[in-house]
Write a structure and sequence with these properties.
Structural class: alpha/beta
Radius of gyration: 24 Å
Number of helices: 21
CATH class of the largest domain: Alpha Beta
CATH topology of the largest domain: Rossmann fold
Number of strands: 20
Strand content: 15-25%
Helix content: 25-40%
CATH superfamily of the largest domain: Thiamin diphosphate (ThDP)-binding fold, Pyr/PP domains
Largest sheet: 6 strands, parallel
Distance between the termini: 77 Å
């Protein structure tokens, strides 16, 4: 053992655990860590412009790699700015570790400069929140954080780092890399699931969520296609299986295909593989009710604490998603039947996801998404935050195999641009597109500077209807024609992008302008942006404000 600073020890542990990228806004409270990173070329340091962007990038990186996305922020306002990303990682079941520079140990409990009790503050929204008091225990805490963030239902860990602790010079032993835990399913439980399939007439699967992986998607798609089982994606888990799979039935959440919703209501056997069956996926716990009378529920999840937490499971199975999917893919049961409903559901989804032009609409987003489908490869990564604008892509885009969708199931705004930066840095050989509404974009649009500084290749599409559109939609339903607090006055987003250093930035106001603008952006490198100026009247891909008002009047 050699004498090292706490900051050096911490960086060494991250390198041992396989961390190759850190997202940060620097702070004086963790200068010892920044100093250690100066001599650690194995870890790429991505310097962001606001801590909200830091946390969203770390969450996106965790989604793509299955390893904890790592973020460093300073105390007080730095930590509170990052708290939204911790909430996203918790609700999205994303492995993430947020390190927070903290006040010196001797100054605690005096309301020192920017002091917050971080374990208390983050405890309710993280899997584990703690403070490292002794530099000799850094290897222990980092190894535990890695395990907690990835085991069972993945999620965020928050560790506070007292400034003086990071400067302490101590001797301590490194901890080895934490191996992944992959719990295999009980073969008896899998056999029981196949017996239920033999008795079913209208099965359906809902997939994606905690611990989902490309391996899980590949094997589950094989299993579902072989048995003809319709596969619906949980909310914003549309890349759980390749949408080209012949039994993919579409997505649940906000604005799903009503035919798919009815199929799930009519199902006698529901295979929930991965999702928690949260509020968005289940349409407020009504599409499938927690006690689901008349339906049999097989619930497979990597965390035993989720099985039976909200939903009664007739057959609960605790298992790693990749292990489970591979076992059922390779399971041989000559008596198991094949259903025809899978192909039927896929045809219905193909019809539902094919946009048709709207009459009298100057800039119609449906054909714009179709143009993107024609020009981008299946492995393109589509990133979005929250807002009605995302519904056009959720409905009409056809996602390839994971990871091709970075979108928060927690419904947070401002996620798409930071996620796209993380995606472009992680997959430099793949197209990455951030889709953002005007309100959504301006919550973290400053991360365009991060994209340019780090040479990220990404396309940003800003859908500008001069409104917080989702809230305007609800407002028109509940208080028609009484517009209050939802209008926006926006900048010239193309000019703004050029100021940040975009290689191409254009504004389109008509549908026929979009495809040529897309061609020009795809022919360039670096940051590119298309500013789509739309009419708020087209409030969603399925309705208009006029129709909402007419419906409210009966």
């Amino acid at each position: 053992m050699t004498i090292r600073t706490g900051g050096r020890i911490l960086v060494d542990q991250l390198k041992i655990q396989g961390c190759d990228r850190i997202f940060t806004v620097p702070g004086e409270s963790f200068l010892a860590v920044l100093d250690a990173l100066h001599d650690t070329p194995e870890i790429d340091l991505v310097v962001c412009r606001q801590e909200g962007g830091v946390a969203y990038m770390a969450d996106a990186d965790g989604k793509m790699t299955g390893r904890p996305g790592v973020a460093f922020v300073t105390r007080g306002p730095g930590a509170t700015n990052a708290s939204g990303g911790v909430h996203v990682a918790m609700q999205d079941s994303t492995p993430m570790i947020l390190f927070i520079g903290d006040v010196a140990r001797g100054d605690r409990d005096r309301e020192a400069f920017q002091e917050i009790d971080f374990p208390d503050f983050f405890g309710p929204i993280a899997k584990w929140a703690a403070r490292i008091e002794d530099a000799r225990r850094i290897p222990e805490y980092v190894a535990r954080a890695w395990r907690v963030a990835t085991a069972g239902r993945p999620g965020p860990v928050v560790l506070a780092l007292p400034e003086d602790m990071l400067r302490d010079e101590v001797e301590t032993a490194d901890r080895p890399a934490v191996p992944p835990l992959a719990e295999a399913p009980d073969p008896g439980a899998v056999q029981a699931m196949f017996e239920l399939l033999k008795d079913a007439t209208n099965p359906v699967a809902i997939v994606g969520g905690a611990d989902w992986s490309p391996r899980a998607g590949h094997h589950f798609a094989n299993f579902a296609f072989r048995h003809g089982i319709p596969v619906a994606a949980a909310f914003r888990r549309q890349d759980a299986i390749d949408n080209a799979c012949g039994v993919y039935a579409g997505n649940l959440g906000y604005g799903p295909n009503p035919v798919l919703q009815q199929r799930i209501r009519d199902a006698d056997l529901v295979l929930a593989i991965g999702p928690r069956l949260g509020e968005a996926t289940t349409d407020g716990y009504t599409l499938i009710t927690p006690d689901h009378p008349g339906q049999t529920l097989v619930h497979v999840h990597p965390d035993p604490n989720e099985l039976g937490r909200v939903y009664h499971a007739d057959l609960p199975i605790c298992a790693d998603m990749g292990e489970f999917a591979e076992m059922i893919d390779e399971w041989m049961d000559p008596d198991c039947v094949r259903f025809s409903c899978g192909e039927d559901a896929h045809r219905q989804w193909l019809d539902w996801s094919e946009p048709t032009a709207r009459d009298g609409v100057a800039l119609d987003l449906g054909p714009c998404v179709a143009a993107m489908r024609d020009k981008l490869p299946p492995n393109a990564i589509i990133c979005n935050g929250a807002g009605n604008f995302s519904g056009w892509w959720h409905r009409y885009w056809r996602y390839g195999a994971m990871p091709t969708q970075l979108a928060p199931t927690s419904g947070t705004m401002g996620y798409g641009v930071p996620a796209a930066v993380a995606g472009a840095l992680r997959f430099k050989d793949r197209p990455v597109v951030a889709v953002a509404g005007d309100g959504d974009f301006l919550m973290n649009g400053q991360e365009l500077a991060t994209a340019v500084q780090h040479g990220a290749n990404l396309l940003v599409i800003v859908v500008d209807n001069g409104s917080y559109g989702t809230i305007r939609m609800h407002q028109e339903r509940d208080y028609p024609e009484r517009i209050s607090g939802t209008g926006l006055s926006n900048p010239d987003f193309a000019a703004l992008a050029r100021a940040y250093g975009a290689s191409v930035a254009e504004t389109v106001t008509r549908t026929d302008e979009f495809a040529p603008a897309l061609d020009r952006t795809l022919g360039a490198k670096g940051l590119r942006l298309i500013h789509c100026k739309t009419d708020v009247e087209q409030i969603t891909n399925a309705t208009t404000i006029s129709k909402l008002r007419a419906k409210s009047k009966g």
